[in-house]
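Worked example (supplementary).
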Amino acid sequence: MMSHGKNHVTWTAMITGYSRNQDPLGAIECFRDMRAEGIEANQYTFPSVLTACGEIMAFRFAVQVHGCIVKGGFAANVFVESALVDMYARCGCLNDARIVLESMVVDDVVSWNSMIVGCVRQGFTCDALHLFKKMHTKNMKIDDYTYPSVLNCFASLNDANSSKSSKSVHCMAVKTGFERHVLVSNALVDMYAKRSDLSCAFAVFGNMKEPDVVSWTSLITGYTHNGAHEQALTLFCKMRISEIKPDQIVTASILSSCAELTVLDFGQQVHSDFIKSGLRSSLSVDNSLVTMYTNCGCIEDANKVFASMDVKNVITWTALIMGYAKNGKSNESLMFYNEMIESGIKPDFITFIGLLFACSHAGLVDQAREYFDSMANVYHIKPGQDHYACMIDLLGRSGRIDEAVELLNNMMVEPDATVWKALLSACRVHGKIELAEKAANTLFELEPQDAVPYIMLSNLYSSTGQWEDAARIRRLMKSRGVSKEPGYSWMEINSKVYSFMSEDRSHEKSDLIYSKIDEVMMLIREAGYVADMNFALHNIDEEGKELGLAYHSEKLAVAFGLLELPSGMPIRIYKNLRVCGDCHTAMKFISSVYGRVIVLRDSNRFHHFKHGVCSCGDYW
DNA sequence: TTAGGGTTAG
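After joint prediction of all chains, the assembly is encoded as:
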C-alpha cells in the first residue's frame, strides 16, 4: 500500500529535488524512507541517489544501493551504469569504477567523462590522459565536459614534456568548436596560467566574448602564482570595472596578493566590499584576511577575523602562528600552536616553518629542537630545506655555530642554497670568516647570479677592516655581471606611495627631509645614540661613514613621516631588504625622543618601535 | 547521470 498517496514517481521527484539542491543527506534519507515504505526504486531513482552518495562519499550505503540495482535488474541501464561509475570515482574507488565502465555494452561519453574526472581528482593524470587517448582512437564522441578535465591534467603536469600535448588538445578544442564554450576556455586559461605561460592564458582570455568570474580568477591567480602581484591587483580592478562581481574564491585570491604586497588600504577595501556584497564568508576568505592583516602589521584586525570564524583549519592556525611571529609576538605564536593541537588539528609542513620562525626570533633554541624532532617522530613529516635553514639560522644566531655545522653535515638531503645562506648569515653575526668563505664559495657555485652571498662576504670583510678582500669580492661580483637589488623603503600617506633609496635626493621636499634628518640625528645623539660603524661599509673616514649611515633609505622615510604625519599617528615604513643594525638602533631612539610609534616591516619581519623598545627584542 | 577558478611559507 502506498502511504500518504505517494507513488514511486513522487518519491523519485523528491530524491532528485534534494540531490539537485545540493542536499545529498536529504536525498539519501528520502531514499531510505521510500524503501521503508516498500516502494521499489527504478532507473530514474538510482542515478539521483548514487549522485548524492558520491557527493558525500557515502561508500558503504552506495554499495548497498548497487546491490539493489543488481537485484532489481537495472544494472544494464546506461543511466544507472554511468551514475555508478561516477559514484565509485568520486568515492576514490577507481578500480570499481573501471570494472563498471568496462562491463558496459555501449561506449557512453558521460561514463568516460566521470572516469577521467575521477582519475584527475585522485592525481592519476597519466591514467586520465590514457583514457582520453583511448576515447580518441575509439572515435568516441568528445564533448564539452571532456575538455575541462583533460586540460586540468595538463595544468597539474607543469613539465616541458607535456607542453606539446597540451597544445594539441587546445588545437582539437578549436577545430571542433568547443573552445567557444565558457567552461572549456576557462579551463584553457587556467591551464596556461598554471603552466606559467601567461601570454597564452591572456590570449585565450582576450578571445573570450563574455569572460565570467571564473575566467578572471584563473587569469588573476596565474599572475599571483608567478609573483606578479601588482598585475593581479590591476586585473582585479579591471574585473570590477567590467561589472563582474567578485565571489569568495577570487576574493581569497586577491587578498593573498594584498598580503604579499602589504597594501593595507587596498586589502581593507576588498574586505569592506566583500562584506557589502552580502556573500557569506568562507574559510579561504577568512584565512586570507588573517594573513593580509597580520602581514600588514594589524594584529587586532586579524584577531577579529579569527574570533569570528566558526570553522578553522590548519591554514588558519598556521597563518596566525606565522603572523604573530612576524610581528614579534613569538610567545603568543607558540601558544596558538598549543591551542591548535588541543583543538585536534594536526600541523603540516608549513606550520613547522612558522613555528621554527617564531623560535628563531625569540632565541628559543631548545624548544625549536623539540619541534624540529617532533616533525619526523610524531607527525611523520620529513624536514625540508626551509626547516633546516630555520634551524641553522637559529643555532647560528645564538652562537652555536658548531651545532649549526653539525646539523648541516648530517642532513638527509643535499643542502641547497637556502641552507648555506642561513649558515653564511650566522657567520656574519659572529664574525666567522673561514666558515663564511666556505659557505660563500659553495653559494657562488650553486647560484652564481645571486648577489646576496657576495654582499654578505664583502660586508663581513669590511666589518673586520679587511678592505682589500671586500673590494676583491665586489670586483668578482662585477666581473660576473651580478647586480645587487638596491635597498629602498616606501610608505603610504593619503593613498600615495612615497619611496626612498639610500642617499636619495630626488624627492621634491628633499631639502626639508635632509634638514629633518640632521635634527633627528642631533636629538638622538643627545639621548645616547652612537652610530654603529659595523654597518658603514665604505673605506672612508669615520665622519664620512656616519653620514652614509644617516642617509639610509629607512631613515629618509622616517624623517619624511615625521614631517608629514600628524603627531600621535604611527609611522609605517616598508623596506625591501633587512633593516640594518644601525637603523634599528636609531629607530628605537627616534620612537622615544619623538614619542612616536614606528612600524617598520623589512624583508623578514615587522619591527614595532615604541618608547625606545622594539617588538623584536633586538633579535632579528 | 558527467565539467572550470581559491586560502598558510624567508
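Two points are worth noting when inspecting this output. The two ends of chain A are 78 Å apart (CA to CA). The mean pLDDT of chain A is 91.
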